[in-house]
Amino acid sequence: MDTYEKEKFMDQITVKAETLIEALPYIRDFNNKRVVVKYGGSAMLDKNLEESVIKDVALLKLVGMQPIIVHGGGKEISHWIDKVGMETRFEEGFRVTDKETMEIAEMVLNRVNKNLVQMVEHLGVKAIGICGKDGGMLQVTKKMPNGKDIGYVGDIESVNTEILDTLLDNDFIPIIAPIGMDEKGETYNINADDAACAIAGAIRAEKLAFLTDVEGVCMNPKDPSSLVSVLNLIEANKLIESGIISGGMLPKVNNCIHAVNEGVGRVHILDGRRKHCLLLEFFTKKGIGTAIIGDDSELYDHEMV
Fold first, then answer.
1. What is the pLDDT of residues 248-272, one digit of tens each?
2. Single pTM value for the model
3. Which class for 195: exposed (0-12), middle (13-18), buried (19 or more C-beta within 10 A)?
């Protein structure tokens, strides 16, 4: 190795060392804090991105945080419904879920769940895969959007945190499939965003991160450079009223607002298509994506104008 190559190598490892030093105050502040990661979308379909997300979550655990994964699987469910010759129908943005569709959804979500457990365990971190039926964690009632009966789709009524507390206290990462039960013991599919919000609020999570297929909230959805780094609740509601937040981003932001109102410290909307998006947001000064915070919450240094 000549002098130039040695200097280049030293520059590279110095940058890595500086990145670790930059992360130190965040690692300290978030030590032993609970973090919920809602995982789905493109990041779940791309093998490289999937590995990146799982490595990020494992690292969060190894530096002292208490992560929980709530995962989706809608596209995989649609694939299997088509494969068996059934029709996929949506009403009011929700999948119409009859008994047969519910059976397929439960099968697919449990398959996804155990695959994620396997990936985490392979990294030397303990994980347990569960669904909302385990320990009566997610109690639901039938969702009736605009009065329409869409089958076995649930609205979360309550979250029993006992099983989560037990797993976290015993050093496991809970990986949760969004399936719940009603008071009669019937099984219901739950929107994964709704499940993540309800769980994060119930455990008073420090952070809730949504991994999405967009950069975050943009003043102009067609211009990524118009990304808004941080919004308090007043600002977020104003953007909704003005129509700047609309379409698919609207339910996402409404979920964020609900989660903050339920006691979650900060909710992040991140581009799950970007490798190591969780680490970039949690452990660097610049950060990425959009953070939704309470009106009285303090800004991080990089969020101050």
1. 788 889 989 999 998 898 999 998 8
2. 0.89
3. buried
